[in-house]
């Protein structure tokens, strides 16, 4: 099983991050954290890498249901969404990867968690799909 829901966009990195934030918000996700991997690795290790940001997205009603089903599932929250430049493709190509919430069900079989994972996966897939349709338009 793949652990990511993904799409490739043909736009600038900054535009991809902005569009991803909006697509997540449209599906009820707020971005609680943002990790700029490029800046962090440069500052801490003096290593260079492509543009790469991890957005920690959370849908509070779904998160509440998930932790009510399994208190330890909080270890897998929030849903991480990585926006990264595709250096292999060159130019303005950006990959957006969202963690597939179905991974939670592989880790925990607590009652009620599958329904939360299904709903979260549908919302994240809708966000990814909206990025694809906006990119095609």
What is the compact description of this entry?
The protein is an alpha+beta fold and about 140 residues long.
Q: Can you characterise this structure?
A:
- The protein is an alpha+beta fold and 137 residues long.
- Helices cover 46% and strands 26% of the residues.
- It has helices at residues 13-26, 37-45, 60-69, 102-107, 113-136, and strands at residues 4-10, 30-36, 52-58, 79-85, 93-99.
- Strands 1-5-4-3-2 form a five-stranded antiparallel beta sheet.
- Strand 4 and strand 5 (93-99) form a beta hairpin.
- Helix 1 crosses helix 5 (113-136).
- The radius of gyration is 15 Å and the shape is globular.
- Describe the main β-sheet briefly: 5 strands, antiparallel
- Element-level helix/strand string: EHEHEHEEHH
Sheet with the most strands: spatial strand order = 1-5-4-3-2
Q: Any low-confidence stretches, pLDDT <50, length ≥5?
A: none
> Helicity, in percent?
40-55%
Count of DSSP-assigned helices = 5
**Beta fraction:** 25-35%
Total count of strands: 5
For the CA atoms, what is the radius of gyration? 15 Å
Question: What's the end-to-end separation, in Å?
Answer: 31 Å
Task: Provide the residue-averaged pLDDT.
Answer: 93
The rough form would be described as globular
SS class = alpha+beta
SSE map:
Blueprint: E1 4-10, H1 13-26, E2 30-36, H2 37-45, E3 52-58, H3 60-69, E4 79-85, E5 93-99, H4 102-107, H5 113-136
Antiparallel strand pairs: 1-5, 2-3, 3-4, 4-5
Helix pairs in contact: 1-5, 3-5
């Amino acid at each position: 099983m793949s652990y990511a829901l993904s799409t490739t966009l043909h736009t600038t990195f900054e535009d991809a991050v902005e569009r991803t934030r909006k697509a997540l918000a449209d599906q009820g996700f707020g971005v609680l954290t943002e990790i700029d991997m490029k800046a962090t690795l440069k500052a801490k290790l003096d290593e260079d890498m492509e543009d790469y940001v991890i957005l920690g997205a959370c849908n509070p009603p779904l998160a509440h249901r998930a932790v009510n089903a399994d208190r330890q599932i909080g270890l897998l929250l929030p849903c991480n969404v990585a926006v990264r430049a595709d250096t292999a493709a060159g130019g303005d190509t950006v990959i957006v990867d969202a963690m597939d919430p179905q991974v939670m069900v592989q880790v925990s079989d607590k009652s009620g968690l599958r329904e939360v994972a299904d709903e979260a996966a549908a919302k994240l897939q809708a966000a990814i799909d909206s990025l694809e349709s906006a990119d095609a338009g």
